Amino acid sequence: MIAQLSDPHLRAGADDQGSAAALATAVAAVLELEPLPAAVLVTGDLAEHASAAEYARVRELLAPLPMPVHVLAGNHDDGDAMREHFPLAGDGPYRYTTACGGLRLVACDTSRRGRDDGDLDLDWLEAQLETDAPTIVAMHHPPLLTGIGGLDAIGLPAAQRTALAALLGRSPHVRRVVAGHVHRTAFAALGGCGVVTCASTNLQARLQIREAGYELSDDPPAMLVHALLDGEPTSHVQPLRRG
User: Fold this and answer.
1) Predicted model pTM
2) For residue 230, what are the CA distances in angstroms to 19, 34, 44, 135, 143?
3) Is the pLDDT of residue 243 over 80?
4) S-S: 104 plus which of 43, 78, 133, 185, CB 3.0-4.6 Å?
């Protein structure tokens, strides 16, 4: 079982917009799960400004979790700064592959320095999918359209979504693609594979199916829980209390 948190956007200092309390509440909710998950995945935007103080605070708040915690880089993150508090071998993109709760987790880096939209290295991902072990692919920017124009404008390019659909279509061992970024839960299918986004631990995006813009709302936060059942993952939306 894997618990997925996303987009805490931790802000250091007194005016943190409730981000620290919200992440602490999410961690407490993970610790209440029965059984405890084998791992926790945080799908990006750990920090609001990618400062050392913010990453130190995120690590402190995640410290009560006794299981492995796997993090991704989002558009608000800086991979080099993350490495200081969430070590990862090598340099360059913050990406890796690891065993995770009976599944193979392929963690992509879709961040682009100084930009909010994403970019997916499909060649790297395809190389990680050469094994046929049951796999979850994780990334910050989701390969789906929400219908919320302002969010879709800062997602992955259409050509990359199309190419990823083809890759997933010939990679049936990929059981799920999970992401964050859009601050709400949304479901879709791509190349025959289920795609799901995780809500933020703090602030959510309002559901407004329209051409442009987006607004944040006080909708309740949530996490996802991915349970491997008879070899297939089932994804649950677990609401969280306000921090």
Assistant:
1) 0.95
2) 37, 18, 29, 14, 26
3) no
4) 133
